[in-house]
Design brief:
It is a single chain. With 346 residues, the protein is of the alpha/beta class. The protein has two domains: 64 residues, Alpha-Beta Plaits (2-Layer Sandwich); 250 residues, Aldolase class I (TIM Barrel), CATH 3.20.20.70. The protein has ten helices and 14 strands. The structure holds phosphoenolpyruvate and manganese (II) ion.
Length: 346
């Protein structure tokens, strides 16, 4: 007798590149006939059939022996579609003409928020001159207090686009709401999911259904495995251009805003094929720690850095305490370049 085991949810059958429609249909039917819910996605040009339950079939042929089937990707973190079992080489994510994960560290820099045209253009020019490759600056800010500055909204996206046109730097901006994904993605070159939304599955699915690359921050109380699962939510929807960002986790010690978990970088890189960046600014919450933590991040293998820069931190509407001045950012670029050079990552 054939028996379907319900022990493991979510199973992915990766089809061969030349699998026919009939072969895909046969796999789908095999799951459906055992009561499983099935979805079919096209990931990196490969058809993947995913089922809500694992139909483990005793006294029956293994999945790999079915025509058109390449392999089964199981559900342990390392075995996910974002995991090494699916892809052993490293994913390289393109943001406009910039690549992340290709060897040399990629630096994203700019103000925490777009506060106005003058402020943003001043900082954008400064980070470009110092060698940043991607601009950051948010139009929608996730603030702890509802009375704090929430961002300029659509106007912020327009100003960021203007800065891109002038400096040639592509930009990344945070998206907070599934209803605003299309708006943010229509302006930004890359969309960011912030720490507070890492477990917002509706938002993860929505960014997974649009084509712009995704910067996915680690939840401030999330394990690495939970962070990997959040990436899987995006990937499964068809968007395979995902970059993870370690930004510190909550700890007992208020000497820093968050405790930067450098071990998470090599762990995430061994579990997944995705690039992993580090945000020392939101981890430290203090500008004096940003350069040393940036050096350490590159030394531990981070594929890049996300750095807050402001020309007048004392007047910043958000996160001034952690922002580097343009000249401090230029110093960071020199020091990080030395560490990368010593490791042959140039
Ligand atoms: C940010 O990068 O501006 C931000 C809000 O970061 P996080 O989500 O890591 O707090
Ligand atoms: Mn911030």
């Amino acid at each position: 007798m054939v028996r379907a085991s319900l022990s493991r949810p979510d199973m992915n059958i990766v089809m061969l590149p030349d699998a026919t429609e009939a072969e895909v249909a046969e796999v789908v039917e095999r799951f459906r006939s055992r009561g499983a819910e099935v979805s079919v996605s096209n990931l990196d040009g490969r058809i993947v059939v995913s089922a809500s339950v694992e139909a483990r079939l005793e006294h029956d042929a293994p999945w790999e022996s079915f025509p058109g089937v390449d392999r089964v990707v199981s559900t342990v973190p390392g075995g996910r579609l974002v995991g090494r079992a699916h892809r052993s080489d490293d994913s390289v994510v393109s943001v406009g003409r910039v690549t992340i994960g290709a060897g040399a560290p990629t630096v994203i820099a700019g103000p925490c928020a777009a506060e106005g045209r003058e402020q943003l253009l001043t900082v954008a020019r400064a980070v470009r001159d110092a060698g940043a490759q991607i601009l950051r600056g948010d139009a929608f800010k996730p603030r702890t207090s509802p009375y704090s500055f929430q961002g300029l909204g659509k106007l912020g996206l327009e100003i960021l686009s203007e800065a891109r046109d002038e400096t040639g730097l592509p930009f990344v901006a945070e998206v907070l709401d599934p209803r605003e994904v299309d708006l943010v993605a229509s302006y930004a070159d890359m969309v960011r999911i912030g720490t507070r939304n890492m477990s917002n599955h509706a938002l993860l699915r929505e960014v997974g259904r649009q084509p712009k690359p995704v910067l996915l921050k680690r939840g401030r109380a999330a394990t690495v495995a939970e962070w990997v699962d959040a990436a899987e939510y995006v990937y499964r929807e068809g968007n395979t251009n995902i970059v993870l960002v370690e930004r510190g986790v909550r700890s007992f010690d208020d000497a820093v805003r968050n405790m930067l978990d450098l071990a998470a970088v090599p762990i995430a890189k061994s579990l997944t094929h995705l690039p992993v960046m580090v945000d020392p600014s939101h981890a430290a919450g203090r500008s004096d720690l940003v350069i040393p933590l940036a050096r350490a991040a590159v030394a531990v293998g981070a594929d890049g850095l996300l750095i807050d820069v402001h020309h007048d931190p004392a007047s910043a509407l958000v996160d001034g305490a952690q922002a580097l001045l343009p000249e401090e950012f230029a110093e960071l670029m020199v020091e990080v370049g030395r560490v990368a050079g010593a490791l042959g990552r140039v």
